Amino acid sequence: MRCLSDFQRGTVIGCHLCNKLSREISLLRNIPKSTVGFLIRKWRSLGTTATQPQSGRPRKLTERGQRMLKHILQRGRRLSAQSVATQLKTSCDLQISPRTVRRELHGMGFHCQAAASKNPLISVANRGKRPQFSREHHDWTLEQWKKVMWPDEFTFTLFQTDGYCCFGSRI
Predict the structure, then answer these.
(1) Is residue 146 part of a domain?
(2) Percentage of the chain surpassing pLDDT 70?
(3) How confident is the model at residue 171 (pLDDT cuts 50, 70, 90)?
(4) Model confidence at 18, in pLDDT bands (50, 70, 90)?
(5) Which burial class, exposed, middle or buried, applies to 42 when counting CB atoms under 10 A from its CB (0-12, 13-18, 19+)?
(6) Comparing C-alpha atoms, which of 34, 27, 50, 23 is closest to residue 1?
(7) Domain that residue 84 falls in
(8) Which of 65, 96, 109, 149 would staple 170 via disulfide (CB 3.0–4.6 Å)?
(9) Looking at the domain assignment, is residue 104 inside a domain?
(10) Alpha carbons 169 and 105: distance in angstroms, whole number
(11) Which Gene Ontology MF annotations are present (predicted)?
């Protein structure tokens, strides 16, 4: 069912009260017949065509929790979402995940991203070893390369944090 304004819903019910058929209302208002039928059934059963409150889980963070989150971020502008979640647990006794912290901050207009590194990723020693390795293994065959065990499933941390850093600037 497409979204209809309150006025459109009212005109459908008004046409129904004037003894028009669903097909006639559909053609007159350019609304699908299934939508017209749904609105009429809803009006008969509930007495209203307004959208009812949706079910769902209550929010984890209250307004007080959001204020605390903002306060923590303003004190330490470059904190990881994990450290913010830990601080919320200790100060407000709120158990929330780092993902919830990022989602709430995004909703408040802040953004989180991985911090840029100030150090080069390749050390001076390795910078010299890379061309040497390339020259030594230049003429290797495909079979020789298949015997090399590549550590592609190894997790390591290059910088100070495993997560995102939350920056205290508005979008």
Answers:
(1) no
(2) 80
(3) very low
(4) very high
(5) middle
(6) 34
(7) 63-108
(8) 109
(9) yes
(10) 10
(11) DNA binding
Query: What type of residue is 155?
Result: T
3-state secondary structure of 110: strand
Is residue 169 a contact partner of residue 110, using CB atoms and an 8 Å limit? yes
Report the alpha-carbon distance of residue 163 to residue 171 in Å, rounded.
20
H or E element at residue 170:
strand 165-170
The count of C-alpha atoms lying within 13 angstroms of the C-alpha of 60, restricted to the half-sphere facing its C-beta, is: 16
Could you tell me which of 79, 115, 107, 83 has the C-alpha nearest to residue 96? 83
The span from the CA of 88 to the CA of 66, in Å, is 10
pLDDT at res. 115: 58
Give a yes or no: residue 131 inside a domain: no
Token digits of residue 89: 């647990």
How many C-beta neighbours within 10 Å does residue 15 have? 19
Assess whether pLDDT exceeds 60 at residue 145: yes
SS3 (DSSP) at 124: helix
Q: Per residue in 116-125, pLDDT tens?
A: 666 667 788 8
Cβ atoms of residues 36 and 26 within 8 Å: yes
31 with 68, same domain: the answer is no
Classify burial at 50, counting beta carbons within 10 Å of its beta carbon; exposed 0-12, middle 13-18, buried 19 or more. exposed
